[in-house]
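Re: beginner question about structure tokens

> Can someone show what the tokenized structure looks like for a real chain? I only ever see the sequence side.

Sure, here's an example I had lying around. Input first:
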Amino acid sequence: MTQTLILTITAFLSGYTGVATFPFPTYMKVEENEPAAKVMDGDKSEILWLARVIFSETKDEDEMNLVGWVVRNRVEAEYRGTTYKEVALSKYQFSGLNSKDAQYDININMEYASLNEKWITALLVAEKIYFANENERPFSGDVKHFYSPVSVSGTPAWAEGGELDYEIPGADGMASRFAFYSGVK
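And the corresponding structure tokens:
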């Protein structure tokens, strides 16, 4: 079933127009009252860049959602760019999209056709966030920064001027997985 879902998503996202039959997973219910969002080419590029940021920062779906909303907050506020690509590539912002990061080549080259379960999840989360309504935002639109305390040795200097809005606790007494901030100058 997972392979079928991955092939279905890959075919849809890549714009495959040939004839193919894929069984629809029974656990996914389509709402008949809601029209499917038509993903235009410009949207596809923006969703791809949002997914790259998300995938580069975490492989956990709940964390992906929060990271993705930070990126959307930045785009909407025109903070470090006016598009998802500009925000994603803004210098010193997302460690996994920094050319010195060990996973940079993987992260920057992910495409719609890339077959990786966590990548497919990142694409789905990115599309959901991209088309989401305001009321689906998990925290204030002013939350435009985050870092991973478990990944760094101390609180970044930029965080000292902001307000901690949300924290994902670490397991078994470990440092927090992520800390999300608003009010950073």
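Each token stands for a local structural state, so reading them left to right follows the chain. Residues 39-138 form one domain.
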